[in-house]
Structure formats: structure tokens, C-alpha cells
Design a protein that fits this description.
Helix content is about 25%, strand content about 30%. By secondary structure, the chain is an alpha+beta fold. One of its GO terms (biological process) is L-methylmalonyl-CoA metabolic process.
């Protein structure tokens, strides 16, 4: 039993690497989970599950630890694991909660300047309403939302709040992006904002992209194949700027108010047709190009073309549609 536990436990304490034997260097693909020691699950689970809305997925324990294990992983002598619970935390890293039974473990919440102190920040679309919600649940919020007005993080709002046992967590929000993003840097900070929007979509096109621009463009393509008008309209707000300029061989639109009737007509004229990628998406700076095909499963490339995009603040500012072989 100890051998089985050690195998499971070690996986929870180590980062999962994608091995590349030719490069001989392990490549970290991302944060798989964040581990948090809590006083007890009776206190912690209602906080994460009922207030923050996270979903418990797995639970293991209790387990006995031997002296060699405790010494190796810097755990107080006599400590035992009562329970480990893993939760799905929206569209970010998973949260893994540890409850120990320990006669020597520190029961005081560390100070911010203590070595090893850390905090976890959660993204929210509306920080003011989120603060009101937390307060309504009896959660202590340490201040009004702070707004960054200068520097690379301008446009971000943030605030700290306390778990019932005193640990600090943070809410952050930047629905219009941060200032540094407008400079179109080669690398942007990862954000659950766009990930949450794309993974929430139900469509006929599977979204498998690994960066924000590709997810945005695949979401655009999926939305043109979406038959539910309500879902499609919701997606428009996630994909396009309010004044998006859409140039098609047959029309020019400013905004998306007249886009639904065109998509409805397109789907009615071509029943059973689906949009799909014909080639990999191409991007440079804030410009991107998507090669698409439109057709039934028996001939998915019945109609082909490409969309050219101008991206601004993680949304499509301009869209130019080209259809192969079209003669007007």
C-alpha cells in the first residue's frame, strides 16, 4: 500500500514534463496544478466548491508516511496525510488540496515576506460584481479593487481576499486587455480569459489550437458553423470588436448586427455543409490568415477560401473574406 501511495503522491509533487529525447531537455508545457495545504477539508471544500465554484474531481487518502519520506520532502515527523482532493478550477490550472494530521505543523498563516509564501490569482470578467458576491458570502475582501493606470499592466484591476482560514487569494480582471498587449509583443502572458471563452463553445468545429490567436480564429470559424443564433450572438461579443469591419465579396458590414441573417441564409442554402481548416493558420504581428473549406463530409472542400484578419486587443478588428474561383 505504501509503494502504491508513494507513486501517486510523487506525481502530485512533481511537474509533468513532455520528454524530447533528441533535445535531451525536458519541456514544461504548462502549470498542471497548484497544491495548497489547508487546515481541513470541512473548511476548505465549501470555500472552493460552493463559493468559488470549482468542481472536485478526485479524492485519495488517508495515507501513512514513513520517516524517510517525511525527511526527503520536508514534512514534520509524525505527520500523516488525511486527504488529497483535486478540483477543476475553470479554465486554468487545477487546484490540489492537502489535509495533514500533524503534531508539529505550523498552524499560523505565513506573512507575505516569509520565504515560501505564495498566492493564487483567479481571473474574473467583472471584478466589481465578483467582490460584491464574495462579500455577500461572508468572505473578507482586503480593499476595493485596485486599478493599474500606468505601465505594462495598465487596464488590469486586482484585489485580495481571504479564505476562511486566513490564506490570501487574488481576483484579477482585464476585459479589454493590458497595455503591453497593444504593442503586439512576440510573447504574451497566458490568460484564462480567452481560454474560457473558447472552450465554452459548443460547435461542429473542434478547437485544438495552442495559442490565443489560433483559438480566436478557430472560434470565429466554429461560430460561422453554429446553428443556434443565441450562442452565435454571444460568440460575436467574444470574437469581434464592437466596430469590427467585415468585408465579403457580397457585402461590407460595420459591427455584427447584420451578420446573423447572412450566416442563417448561408446555412439554409448549403444544408449539411461544415466549415473546417484547410491549412494551418498563419500569423505575424497582429495580422493572421485562415484557409477554410466548406462542404459536406463527402466533399469537405466543395467551396474554399481564406479569411485575413487584423487583431486588436485579442479580438478581430477587421475581417477580409476571399472565396477561391469567385467571379463576380
Amino acid at each position: 500500500m505504501k509503494t502504491i501511495y508513494k507513486t501517486i503522491y510523487m506525481l502530485t509533487l512533481t511537474t509533468i514534463f513532455s520528454q524530447n529525447t533528441s533535445a535531451q531537455t525536458p519541456v514544461v508545457k504548462g502549470i498542471e496544478h497548484i497544491g495548497i495545504t489547508v487546515p481541513d477539508m470541512k473548511t476548505a471544500l465549501p470555500f472552493f466548491k460552493d463559493i468559488l465554484g470549482f468542481t472536485p474531481v478526485t479524492e485519495i487518502g488517508p495515507f501513512e508516511l514513513d520517516d524517510a519520506w517525511r525527511e526527503k520532502y520536508k514534512i514534520h515527523s509524525g505527520a500523516q496525510v488525511e486527504k488529497i482532493v483535486s478540483l477543476r478550477a475553470g479554465d486554468g490550472a487545477n487546484i490540489e488540496l492537502f489535509e495533514y494530521k500533524s503534531p508539529k505543523g505550523n498552524k499560523e498563516v505565513p506573512y507575505g515576506d516569509d520565504l515560501g509564501w505564495n498566492h493564487t490569482a483567479f481571473y474574473t470578467d467583472d471584478i466589481n460584481n465578483s467582490v460584491k458576491y464574495l462579500k455577500s458570502k461572508g468572505i473578507t475582501v482586503l480593499s476595493d479593487p485596485n486599478v493599474s493606470t500606468a505601465g505594462p499592466t495598465a487596464g488590469e484591476s486586482w484585489v485580495y481576499f481571504l479564505a476562511p482560514w486566513g490564506a490570501q487569494f487574488e481576483l484579477v480582471s482585464y476585459p479589454n486587455g493590458k497595455a503591453y498587449e497593444k504593442e503586439n509583443p512576440q510573447t504574451k502572458l497566458w490568460s484564462p480569459k480567452l481560454a474560457g471563452e473558447s472552450f465554452a463553445i459548443t460547435s461542429t468545429t473542434k478547437i485544438t489550437a495552442t495559442n490565443e490567436v489560433e483559438k480566436l480564429l478557430q472560434l470565429h470559424l466554429a461560430t460561422w458553423g453554429e446553428k443556434n443564433v443565441e450562442k452565435r450572438t454571444k460568440n460575436f461579443k467574444l470574437i469581434y470588436t464592437e466596430d469590427v469591419n467585415i468585408v465579403d465579396p457580397f457585402f461590407i458590414l460595420n459591427g455584427t448586427s447584420d451578420l446573423n441573417p447572412f450566416i442563417d441564409d448561408l446555412q439554409k442554402k448549403h444544408p449539411g455543409f461544415k466549415f473546417s481548416l484547410a491549412k494551418p493558420i498563419e500569423t505575424h504581428n497582429n495580422i493572421a490568415r485562415l484557409f477554410w473549406q466548406f462542404g459536406p463530409e463527402s466533399k469537405p472542400d466543395t467551396i474554399t477560401g481564406q479569411d485575413v484578419f487584423v487583431i486588436e486587443n485579442n479580438k478581430i478588428k477587421s475581417l477580409y473574406i476571399f472565396i477561391d474561383g469567385l467571379k463576380k
